[in-house]
Amino acid sequence: xxxxxxxxxxxxxSLDRPSVILAxxxxxxxFVDTSEPxxxxxxGGILVAETVAPQNAHLIAAAPDLLEALKxxxxxxxxVIDLNSLKPNGTFQTAHNQAIAAIDKALxxxxx
Length: 112
Fold this sequence. Notes:
By secondary structure, the chain is mostly helical. Helix content is 47%, strand content 9%.
């Protein structure tokens, strides 16, 4: 699967604005940030999302971490399926299919 093009994590909920999701200045030299320096200074980081419902903010802030964890789980499931020669219609296969669908959705490849 190709790498995502979202703002690199970690993301966090702004301490003084609970409806704002921020990312620290990324250390990834391939990431091109189009934020204005004044915006970064004003918000205290790279603006990821603004006007987020506070009850959703922590879930959204966890998205990059969840994506990486799910990618690791997918690889683990594939290893278990391969090692145990499990049938494709078993519980592990269902979990694998769900993981792939969620990863594709996160990467903008939903329905691809």
